[in-house]
Specification:
Layout (H helix, E strand, L loop, with lengths): L1 H15 L6 E4 L14 H9 L4 E8 L5 E3 L4 E2 L2 E2 L5 H4 L13 H10 L4 E6 L5 H17 L6 E5 L2 H10 L4 E4 L6 H7 L3 E5 H6 L3 H7 L3 E5 L4 H9 L4 E4 L2 H9 L1
Parallel strand pairs: 1-2, 1-11, 2-6, 6-7, 7-8, 8-9, 9-10, 10-11
Antiparallel strand pairs: 2-3, 4-5
């Protein structure tokens, strides 16, 4: 088995020579720097300043219907899905900012030309909230005329399918790691964005996905050696908490 995997890996490396350079996605923005915080407006600005291809951010819907930017399902002791926007405004992020709304995030992103905005719609407890959030996010992206600069990602297959219904031309990529490239293609999604362990356990999936026209992304890769390994495979994007490190690795 080890010999077979080695042969497959070498074949992937050879194939990758004809593919484009891997691009950098800053995970939750560039937050490992002074004055920044995960999913803050500052993190979005700082990601743009260092020249990454894209900046990822996470989106939830409050109980009163406001799309906000945060990674976890709860913050400041409040469950986002069952709490109001005003309740969430009682706390501040690590850099002193309030939690951004998606509206504010996209408004700023509009100004940061040349950088993709990778919008993750989080999996909610209630499907109806996922559907509402999909609709609101699509409307906000249209409001700011960012259709070409926003890529959608989600763990929820329901979210992915709803996005394709409302925005058929949008880039919609699946995160959960439990669907093969061929099945993603048949569902009609744009690509895969899988955890590094999933792609390590399925060493042919990057090549297979690219071979059938899907985009490929891996998360969250924060060390140089695995970065180099995925670059050799010809992966399209690497999502990382260490965007400066990955930029340096790509320059070598």
């Amino acid at each position: 088995m080890k010999k077979v995997r080695t042969i497959l890996y070498l074949l992937i490396c050879v194939a990758s020579l004809s593919w484009g350079q891997t691009q950098v996605i800053a995970h939750r923005g560039f937050w490992k720097t002074e004055g920044s915080a995960q999913n803050s407006l500052a993190a979005l600005k700082k990601a743009h300043e260092i020249g990454v291809y894209g900046s990822e951010f996470d989106v939830w819907l409050t109980a009163d219907g406001i799309p906000i930017v945060n990674h976890d399902a709860s913050i400041f002791g409040f469950d986002i899905e069952t709490s109001t926007y005003d309740q969430l405004m009682t706390g501040t992020l690590a850099n002193g900012e309030k939690i951004p709304t998606v509206d504010a995030y996209l408004a700023l992103g509009k100004q940061l030309e040349g950088m993709q905005l990778v919008l993750e719609i989080k999996s909610h407890k209630r499907v109806v909230n996922e559907d509402r959030l999909v609709r609101l996010c699509v409307e906000l992206v249209q409001k700011y005329e960012l259709e070409d600069r926003v890529d959608y990602i989600a763990f929820s297959m329901n979210v992915c399918k709803e996005l394709k219904k409302l925005a058929p031309e949008a880039t919609v990529v699946y995160l959960n790691g439990d669907v093969s490239p061929q099945d993603l293609k048949e569902i009609g999604l744009t690509g895969l964005d899988y955890n590094h362990k999933v792609l390590t356990d399925n060493p042919t999936w990057v090549a297979k996905a690219k071979g059938i026209g899907l985009t490929t992304n891996v998360w969250t890769v924060n060390e140089e050696k695995p970065m180099q390994g995925f670059i050799r495979q010809g992966i399209d994007f690497i999502t990382t908490d260490e965007p400066e490190l990955l930029l340096k690795v790509l320059k070598k």
